[in-house]
């Protein structure tokens, strides 16, 4: 770990991935001298998940955590390309499965329109100008 970044070396696709971490996480990580970074009881986790989702296929428990992270990342306004890098997906198509969680992503068409605020559109009703819209 260097400059609030952590590098994962044992990934599913075999590629190393370096990601930023918050000051809070960095502080918690620095206190660990050795051993596992997180003390997780996987049996308890699997049991709890089985109670919530009994039909979950074998081997999907960690995937549930990744999926939950990705969904909430997008719901909080995260960028799909950033999510691709975080998840380590080789193609954007893999990451696009989470795009539907994006919060009002279509409103970005208005928010990031380079002509926003420059257009004055008159509204005509029965041949007369009734009002006009000037985006703010």
Automatic annotation (TrEMBL):
The keyword Phosphoprotein does not apply. GO terms for molecular function: DNA binding. One of its GO terms (biological process) is DNA recombination. It comes from the Bacteria. The keyword Transferase does not apply. Keywords: DNA integration, DNA recombination. PROSITE patterns: TYR_RECOMBINASE. This is Integrase/recombinase XerC. Residues 1-111 form the Tyr recombinase domain.
